[in-house]
Task: structure prediction
Amino acid sequence: MRHRLKDVAERAGVSVKTVSNVVNGYLHVRPDTRARVEEAIAELNYRPNLSARNLRKGRTGVIALAVPELDIPYFAELARHVVAAAAELGWTVLIDQTGGGPEQERVAAAGIGDHLIDGLIFSPLALTADDLAGLDGMPMVLLGERVDHGPADHVLIDNVAAAREITAHLVGLGRRRIAAIGSQRTPEGASARLRLAGYAAALDDAGIGYDERLVAPAPAWHRADGAAAMRELLSSGSRPDAVFCFNDTLALGALRALHEAGLRVPQDVAVAGFDDIEDGRFSVPTLTTIAPDKERIARLAVELLAGRITGDRTAPPRELSAPYRLTPRESTEGQS
Amino acid sequence: MRHRLKDVAERAGVSVKTVSNVVNGYLHVRPDTRARVEEAIAELNYRPNLSARNLRKGRTGVIALAVPELDIPYFAELARHVVAAAAELGWTVLIDQTGGGPEQERVAAAGIGDHLIDGLIFSPLALTADDLAGLDGMPMVLLGERVDHGPADHVLIDNVAAAREITAHLVGLGRRRIAAIGSQRTPEGASARLRLAGYAAALDDAGIGYDERLVAPAPAWHRADGAAAMRELLSSGSRPDAVFCFNDTLALGALRALHEAGLRVPQDVAVAGFDDIEDGRFSVPTLTTIAPDKERIARLAVELLAGRITGDRTAPPRELSAPYRLTPRESTEGQS
DNA sequence: AACGTTGCTTACAACGTTGTAGAAACCTGA
DNA sequence: TCAGGTTTCTACAACGTTGTAAGCAACGTT
Result:
């Protein structure tokens, strides 16, 4: 029931290669021959065997998107855009969950492919430039993190500037005891470090001293971590009047913890997030955030990767940045 | 820089097939031969070419998971579990977004694979049994929907019983004007229809009349649709004292709309959802819901599919059901 | 009439892997 | 020592596709 070029060729009375030529849109095929072949293809419902084609061509037409976790909404939304952008260019996307650990990320970066994929869009949490160096020649685009002197292209937003801008927004509302949630012992250049730097810079701009007790770490960036960090901040006695959470899920967790503590948002504590996930547009209160242009990020990443795959693999790595927008909502400005 | 079996064979001084045997864990290889081969593999950093292996074996080792939208948290969470369950059995998962339209779903079901995938786990919104009939022989497992007399295995939870149970929960709290949000003109057997049936049955159990004005349709099941439907219900004058939303994102939208209308949850209106997504555990208030065992669903689906792929493809379709649990939280029971 | 040109088609040989069948080496027990 | 088995290894032929090179018409040009 599954047919091959040979079957089509026999039915149409031509050679196998002629059928191949028709399938691949080769120009010099007589119209009546082409018609006969196409008829045979339709009758047999022929579909090319991609494994064979890939074997022959050395390409698979599949790119992978490796993200730490799919049920972090930011990555899910990003994945959606990547799939769409890739489809426009004729690529299929294989989505891979790394889990975020260094070992798993190494496996993902090195292992997925091995001839199954042509390239990789990779959003690393823990990996460093050294880890990436070992990946001989797999075309790769990094997302969201700046791996210093990394061997690969990457697409990012200016995390420092964005964090600085949203912290300045909190300052502009008259807040002075501004906490941060989400610091991590990640490699230099990772989002956590950059956003912390932007936070610190904004405080400095405003002449507010950096108070270590107001900076809460979060092992992961889930809602539960945000809630736990917020509770920790509140019970430590260093009562903040604003919190900048390094992503929206942390912020949603923080909102929950503030609610449980009987504090009003934004009257008692203003809350800001980062990523602009859909939840934040419907939470109570709605969430002030930095909205990165996810569609642009996805498109740039796919285009860069396609360029690497089909073009020059040895060109020096490129770095593109996507725009973002400060999006104030109720969690800092109150009911509108 | 990319090596083949032949290169390894030459280096180890054995035949190509012996290297193949080592790679595939064939038993009868002398220990010293095996050691020599493994050394050569390590030295050359050899990785098998999957396209060639697949061509030879007629398998790809990849299964697809087709869902309507990845950024609906329920599907993201499900995808996570499917990827994990598949990995345990040595399969890779290709995640495909259909968008939910009938035409796109047809393309996804028919087109993805064509030798790229061995089978498909499919969560259809719009497709009917007729559409599926044309997919000659692609092993497939359907999720969450009962496509009557469908030609494929499926995994589901008892939507009618679950909806009935959660509606009964609302009745048990003394509510009488219980609205439903999420009805759709989908095919018989789709989730929307089944959950509506369970809702109606519970009302009937309690001797409460079914009031069409309390049933609000939702074109999609996003937060925005839930909020819009809730506003519609409130402005129509038929003030409900409880709402059963057919999924959690609808419910989160409804919570938002109720908040904007100045109504308290659950004192004025109790709200219940369906799916137990993570958001609902951190929303204000937390969300009463039906928690399907997503991990079990994923595992059953993967195992059924693996069975189809490696075993009998003509066996009659099987239907497995996964457990669920009513999970009361603040949105119906108030602060604990 | 001989010639090159162009358009269309084909045979053949890969791509890198594994199944089959069988050869060679090695055991075992009489 | 040898028959009969088992272990270990190998040569060969696929899997379905496409690139290469070459063949064969039909055409226009000299």
